[in-house]
Amino acid sequence: MTRIEFILTTAVILFVAFCMGWFANWLVHRFTRVAQSDVDQLERMSQELHEAEETRDQAITYLQQREAELTNQLSQTEAELRAAMDGLRDARQEAEELRMHVERLGGA
Q: Residue 105, CB half-sphere, CA atoms under 13 Å: how many?
């Protein structure tokens, strides 16, 4: 085998290897290519996720406001209950005092 035959044989082998690599690369990209419908579906799903997150944030805000309103209402109701209980206690004490006064007047 002469020097020129060796160079040509090596060149042919390298060219064949290059062609096989290029073909393998083309096959890999052909089968792993993402279809436009898949991209559209991912876009739609990301939009729906964004809308769901916005809805969740609005619901959390509403619940926090509602909780604050109910806490305030509960505080007011407890204050009214304390006032009513104090008034009832005072009324009972006054009624007891009046009963004792009537008994003293009736027994005297």
A: 6
